[in-house]
């Protein structure tokens, strides 16, 4: 019975040893049953079958050494049926454990794939937003460059024209900084507790008039036709 402590480490050896002992010792029968069940659970069916055969032979040997009051053939048949049922129960437990392990592994893989797809989708979304914001920033910086170029190449401009160009530079530089700050917020890695990224507002068709006005204020000749 103390040997059952090692039934998971050496299930086949313990099953054969207890089966052999049960052939001559009634006290070893219970330990042999537990060892055979553990063998059926933790080892392939070939080893479980070998252990069951040895156990049946040991039980028949025990019946021959200590003949029962009833027919020995009837008792032998009951022994065979009992150990077949015992091994079948052990194999069922093994199959159920393997199924649960497989389901847990599939769930783990599915969760890992979901996290990977989610991270990829976030990366694609950040790239798309960065591309769109880059176009907006490029427009702002181009207005700043044009107005600054006008100040550089028109030193004889009137104070009103200089003030207008400086106003355009200041306003568009301020807007560019605001939009750049939004880009940084969007591209920053989401922290714990954030379920989704908040996308900054993008220019739409309704903003077309404002964009044209900005270009005209910078000195560019723009004609707008809306059909």
**Based on helices, strands and strand pairing, what is the structural class?**
mainly alpha
Mean pLDDT: 76
Give me the number of helical elements: 6
**Measured on Cα atoms, how large is the radius of gyration?**
42 Å
Residue runs with pLDDT of under 50 for 5 or more positions: none
Helix content: over 70%
Sheet with the most strands, sense and barrel status: none
Ends apart, CA distance between termini: 95 Å
What's the helix-strand series?
Answer: HHHHHH
Approximate shape: rod-shaped
Beta-strand segment tally: 0
Strand content: under 5%
Describe this structure in words.
The chain is mainly α and 227 residues long. It is built from 6 helices and no strands. It has helices at 11-22, 29-42, 45-65, 72-153, 159-187, 208-217. Helix 2 packs antiparallel against helix 3 (45-65), helix 2 runs parallel beside helix 4 and helix 3 packs antiparallel against helix 4 (72-153). The longest helix is centred in the middle third of the chain and has 82 residues, at 72-153. The radius of gyration is 42 Å and the shape is rod-shaped. The termini are far apart. The model has no long low-confidence stretch (mean pLDDT 76).
């Amino acid at each position: 019975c103390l040997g059952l402590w090692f039934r998971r480490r050496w299930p086949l050896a313990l099953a054969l040893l207890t089966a052999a002992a049960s052939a001559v010792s009634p006290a070893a029968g219970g330990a042999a049953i537990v060892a055979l069940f553990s063998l059926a659970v933790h080892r392939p069916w070939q080893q479980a079958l070998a252990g069951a055969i040895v156990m049946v032979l040991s039980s028949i040997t025990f019946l021959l050494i200590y003949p029962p009051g009833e027919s020995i053939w009837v008792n032998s048949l009951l022994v065979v049926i009992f150990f077949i049922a015992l091994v079948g129960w052990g194999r069922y437990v093994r199959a159920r454990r393997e199924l649960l392990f497989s389901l847990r592994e599939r769930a783990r893989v599915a969760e890992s794939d979901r996290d990977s797809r989610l991270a990829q989708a976030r990366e694609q979304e950040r790239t798309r937003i960065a591309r769109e914001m880059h176009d907006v920033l490029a427009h702002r910086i181009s207005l700043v460059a044009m107005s600054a170029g006008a100040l550089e190449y028109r030193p004889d401009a009137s104070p009103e024209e200089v003030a207008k160009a400086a106003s355009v530079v200041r306003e568009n530089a301020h807007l560019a900084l605001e939009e750049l700050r939004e880009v940084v917020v969007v591209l920053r890695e989401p922290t714990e507790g954030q379920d989704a990224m908040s996308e900054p507002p993008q220019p739409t068709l309704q903003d077309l008039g404002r964009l044209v006005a900005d270009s005209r204020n910078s000195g560019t000749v723009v004609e707008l036709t809306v059909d």
